[in-house]
Amino acid sequence: MMKNEMFYNNERVNQNQLSEIIEKSIKNSHTIFTLYDLESNYSAFLEMNSIVDNIYE
């Protein structure tokens, strides 16, 4: 996450794209890292982590 925008491999992604990426990663037993910069706010960070948590459930 940079400036409240989600990225994957240096490309901006939306919530649906991020969900698909995470789901594939979980199915392939890959490790998932969520990082954010200091210019992002906490609510955007929580939104991103919520997406990850929902897919794990």
List the helices and strands and how they pair.
Layout: E1 7-8, E2 11-12, H1 15-27, H2 42-56
Antiparallel strand pairs: 1-2
Helix pairs in contact: 1-2
Mean residue pLDDT? 91
Helicity level, as a percent range?
A: 40-55%
- So how many helices? 2
Count of separate structural domains = 1
Kindly report how far apart the N and C termini lie: 22 Å
The parts where pLDDT drops under 50 for at least 5 residues are none
**Widest sheet, order of strands:** 1-2
Q: Tell me the major beta sheet.
A: 2 strands, antiparallel
Shape summary: globular
The string of secondary-structure elements, in order, is EEHH
Produce a short descriptive summary.
This protein has 57 residues and is mostly helical.
Description of the structure:
The chain is mainly α and 57 residues long. The chain has one domain. Helices cover 49% and strands 7% of the residues. The protein has 2 helices and 2 strands. Strands 1-2 form a two-stranded antiparallel sheet. Helix 1 (15-27) crosses helix 2. The relative contact order is 0.23. The mean pLDDT is 91.
Provide keyphrases for this structure.
57 residues, mainly alpha, two-stranded antiparallel ribbon, 7% strand, globular
